[in-house]
Write a structure and sequence with these properties.
By secondary structure, this protein is of the alpha/beta class. It folds into two domains: 71 residues, Immunoglobulin-like (Sandwich), CATH 2.60.40; 190 residues, Alpha-Beta Barrel (TIM Barrel), CATH 3.20.20. Strand 9, helix 2 and strand 10 form a beta-alpha-beta unit. It is elongated. It binds zinc ion (ZN). Zinc ion binds next to loops.
């Protein structure tokens, strides 16, 4: 008989293992996230570090920042380890616009029935504006304008060309009348003013008996301590423009980049008030600062034509 003898050995040691790394590298961003830079500044990417099993490995970067075009950009960092595990991290780079000038929103002929809506919009964006008011509208609205931090200018009480431009006396009687109204309602004595029709108006020549009243009034108001303002950006809301979009387009196309813009609007016109929120958003996104007029502001004077 043949016995087959053998020794059966059991291999109890672990099976030969493939060391298989399933853990992705870890990426750490250098610098800030989001990273905020100013329009026109150089963008220097602070980069990122990646480690895998305690060893530093290479990071590849993708994405571009155009520092001359304000907005948000995304930079992505990717690291891949020896066994193909991938890690990705992103950084937001925000390019904020530089200050491109000042916009003075001004609203004439109110207060009126759309003034409350306008005040709510201005409040929402914490924008201060200037109201050249008349004898029209509710005292409470005038009070709100003042209490909410806006500038109150005078635009004559009657806004009646055929009365105010007949004589110097008529003009000042009417101007002091609105000054008193503002004083009585708000406690504030305003010396800021705007001529109905602006200082360049020629309509006054129909009523002034040939005395060239505007030439006299621009000097006389100064003598009496007033500062008059015209405008250099017209919204068109008193003339050919009758839609919100039209007002918005006129304003944003005419605003002076890197300068001062005094914008003429009327808060007695619903479509004009309805354009204000878009104008403010556009201005803020494009680096403009909104301010109210005061006695040191740019006056945007027109030439006198009568
Ligand atoms: Zn007016």
């Amino acid at each position: 008989m043949i016995f087959l003898c053998g020794i059966i050995t059991l291999d109890l040691s672990p099976a030969p293992t493939m060391e298989f790394d399933t853990i992705a590298p870890e990426i750490t961003l250098n610098g800030e996230n989001p990273l905020i830079i100013k329009e026109g500044d150089d963008f220097n990417d602070p980069g990122a570090k990646a480690t895998d099993n305690n060893e530093e490995i290479e990071v590849t970067t993708s994405g571009k920042v155009n520092a001359s075009d304000p907005g948000n950009y995304l930079i992505s960092y990717t690291a891949t380890d020896a066994t193909g595990n991938v890690a990705t991290k992103s950084r937001v780079v925000t390019v904020i616009p530089r200050n491109h000038g000042t916009i003075y929103l001004t609203f004439d002929d109110g207060p009126g029935i759309y003034t409350a809506t306008l005040l709510d919009i201005l409040n929402k964006y914490n924008v201060k504006a200037t109201f050249f008011v008349t004898g029209a509208g509710d005292d409470n609205l005038l009070r709100r304008e003042y209490n909410e931090g806006h500038a109150i200018g005078l635009h004559t009480f009657s806004h009646n060309y055929s009365y105010i431009y007949t004589s110097i006396d008529n003009f000042f009687e009417d101007l002091y009348k609105i000054q008193n109204r503002v004083k009585n309602v708000t406690g504030y004595t305003s010396y800021l003013m705007r001529f109905p029709g602006g200082s360049s108006n020629t309509i006054s020549s129909r009523y002034d008996g040939g005395q060239h009243i505007m030439s006299k009034l621009v000097e006389e108001v100064k003598k009496r301590g007033f500062i008059y303002f015209d405008w250099n950006v017209t919204s068109g809301d008193a003339g050919g423009t009758t839609s919100s979009t039209g007002v918005y387009q006129n304003v944003i196309n005419r605003v002076i980049k890197d300068g001062n813009s005094v914008v003429l609007q009327h808060d007695i016109k619903k479509f004009s008030v309805a354009a204000v929120e878009r104008i403010i958003k556009w201005g803020l996104e494009n680096g403009y600062t909104f301010k109210k007029l005061d006695n040191t502001s740019f006056t945007a004077h027109h030439g006198v034509n009568n």
